[in-house]
Amino acid sequence: MTAPLHGIVVADLTRVLSGPWCTRILADLGARVIKIEEPGFGDATRGFGKLLKKGDAQDKSTRSAYFAQPNTGKESIALSLKNEKDRLLFESILEKADVLVENFRPGVMKRLGYDWDTIHKKYPHLIMCSISGFGQTGPLAKRPAVDTIIQSMSGIVEQTGDPNDKTGIKVGPSVSDIMAGVYAANGVQAALLKRFRSGISSYVDISMLDCSLATACEPIGQFFATGIESPRMRNQNMTVAPFDIYQCAPDSEGKPTSICIAGGSKKFFQKLCEELRLEWVLKDKRFLKNASRMQYSKELRYILESALTRKPANEWCEVLN
Questions:
Q1: Which of 10, 59, 53, 12 is nearest to 32 (CA)?
Q2: Fewest CB atoms within 10 A around its CB: which of 57, 110, 173, 220?
């Protein structure tokens, strides 16, 4: 079967995570991605964390697991865009490419002579996508940005963690980087579709902050609809119960186990209670509807967890799945 983006060529000027994740998605969909790296050391993430073993004695490259994950399936070439010969080679790639993706800080591409106005004039067929912390325009455009900063500014940190703690905590994976890459890949595909239909290429401007605000849509939507700020709820859901991580019995080696249960629908809640031998709960008016289960979520948690401690999590998973 032919991949959806088979035949599409992407010039990849990205590094670290948000941009490489975008081009990784495009590569997964069948595009030929040519990653342009700085001569000498390449993408800085090649040296992040634990390094992978060399393929053979001739393999001189450095690859960390951090680098390999978002850059698999790509070709790579080392070019300095400040060197005239390398610029000519880069421009020969642009002539054949359908898409150029970059995630430098706003202004860098203009200084290099490859801003959208210049690119569009010289390569009218070429789609360009820029990923930055705050977009290419506006009062925050020139600020540097990393995942943790964007998670904090978007409210993701404030919504994560224990309500009794003074501050929230960042989500473990770099979700602001990843979501920017996902939105960028989606934007590039929309631009390809537009070019296919109209023959006109587009500039895709992706802001990490915009993407993270969209990711935090639940608490933000609740606030604008009701004027009420949603509190941190640990592993619970702000609108559905039961929805949490519950302690179960230890496993055969005596290690503690836990299970995640998300049982918002009437059908699932009924099955859950039946499997836990808690049929009486289905007749308790505190737990008849989701709204009342939310109101008495602490009591419901205690009841469920008391029953779940009869077996380890793996046994409950077999029953409940």
A1: 10
A2: 57
In this structure, the number of other CB atoms found within 10 A of the CB of residue 20 comes to: 28
Residue 293 token pair: 């289960």
Bridge partners, residue 77, by sequence: 36
The answer to whether 180 touches 131, Cβ cutoff 8 Å, is yes
**CA gap 308, 315 in Å, rounded:** 10
pLDDT tens column, 240-262? 999 999 999 999 999 999 999 99
Q: Quick one: CA torsion of 230, 234, 237, 238, rounded to 10 degrees?
A: -20
Residues involved in catalysis: 177
User: What is d(CA 26, CA 9) in angstroms, rounded to the nearest whole number?
Assistant: 10
Q: Which amino acid is at 207?
A: S
Strands (E), the chain: 9-13, 32-37, 75-78, 99-102, 127-132, 203-207, 243-247, 258-262
Q: What is the pTM of this model?
A: 0.89
pLDDT digits (tens, 9 = 90+) for 168-210: 999 999 999 999 999 999 999 999 999 999 999 999 999 999 9
Amino acid at 80: S
Give 254's Cβ-side CA count (13 Å radius).
Answer: 0
